[in-house]
Write a structure and sequence with these properties.
3 strands, signal, Esterase, alpha+beta, disordered N terminus, FG-GAP, 102 residues, disordered C terminus, elongated
């Protein structure tokens, strides 16, 4: 939980549907040829909304995943439908978010 809390400190970035940026590497969200990881944080607070949820994307590189190269995607991110609301749990699979991001 502490790891995710630290990762959630990243600035939220606009979201692009993964299908639009996939290269030849599955799980490559930014199209740089390296696998990335999406970490769900359904209990994350967003803009004062408790449990609105977020997805933290750690970008991969030749050396592996990077905790410093990351994006935090919420329902308040550009390109994501709806807005963050308390209790949304955005990152839950089958909910509003993770299935859309991946």
């Amino acid at each position: 939980m502490i790891l995710l809390a630290g990762l959630l400190g990243a600035a939220a970035l606009p979201a692009t549907p993964a299908a639009a940026v996939h290269g030849a590497v599955p799980g490559d969200f930014n199209g740089d040829g390296y696998r990335d990881a999406a970490l769900p944080a359904p209990g994350a607070d967003v803009a004062g909304k408790q449990g609105a949820g977020a997805v933290v994307v750690l970008y991969g590189s030749r050396k592996g995943l990077s905790a410093t190269r990351r994006a935090v995607v919420t329902q308040n991110s550009a390109g994501v439908p709806d807005t963050a609301e308390a209790g949304d749990a955005f990152a839950l699979l089958g909910g509003h978010g993770l299935g859309w991001v991946i």
